[in-house]
# Entry
Amino acid sequence: MNIAIIGCGTMGMTHAHNLGKMPGVKVSGVADLIQKRADQAAEACGAVPYKDWELMLEQVKPDTVVVCLPTYLHKSLVLKLAERGLHIICEKPAALTLEDAKEMKAACSKHGVRLFIGHVVRFFPNYRNAFDQVRSGKIGEAKMAYFKRHGSYPIGVSFWYRDRSKSGGVIMDLMIHDIDFACWLFGDVESVYASVTKPSLSMEYAQVTLKFSSGAIANLTGFWGYAGPFTTQFEISGKEGIIRFDSNQVQSLDLKVATGGDDQKVAVQVPSSPTLHDPYYDEVKHFIECIREGSEPIVSAADACRAVEIALACEHSAQTGQPVRMGGITS
# Structure
């Protein structure tokens, strides 16, 4: 498959490294307005570097384009690529409004091309392992979960993150990972309640409670400005056990299941599935296989639209200080 990359920042470089070693894939061109970044990405995957993405498409004629631009630029580029008949793998979130995300999805459907949004957490071994454990009934019916995602404030590449009209803030850009995973785990969200505080230009903290139609509850925290290492944690509780994960503590799940006797209550370490490549490699490989085989992806464009809708509902709740039922303010 002939692939091109537009945007050679952190995620563009990640995809360049992975696609450059993926069997059956040729990265023919990479484009970035900053020539140095385009050159570095090109070297990583053996492609030709460009500053002009339109010239690149004319010359290398890819089948699929990986879009790694800032969020506020996703819609306009995706619509143009769809009109050209190109399949699209776009970084999350899909867009900053539900209307834009739906328009992107509709345009790709109209032009007969595939649209994949990179909600990569579904491909992280520990998260996928936890999902499988819940689905298998290991902890009984799961009714409560807690997700945490803390990282440094994204600076250095540009300051667009600080403009909420371009990034959407910590909920839309960071917490949306856990919003998507929680929806994958529990299904439809009935209502949300959220609070956001931004004590400085380089710090933003959010807390969200999602209530699901199934009766399950998920509490999420997202933090930009954390001084320590990037941290993810989750805890999923069921009627018969609990699953815990802390990226700073272990690289496998801690699964505790209730048994008949106290002497049998032991922690069972469930190791993460062994992987040769990182989750971003597995994610894009999966999307490429879906294009080749015409199969449905683990995360659909509809899932990505839903994540945007929920993130926007959370923002509205934070602004008003009131719970928001889904179907409320989502623009």
Remarks:
- The chain has a mean pLDDT of 91.
- The domain at 2-120 is CATH 3.40.50.720 (Rossmann fold).
- The CA atoms of residues 164 and 170 lie 9 Å apart.
- The longest helix spans residues 301-320.
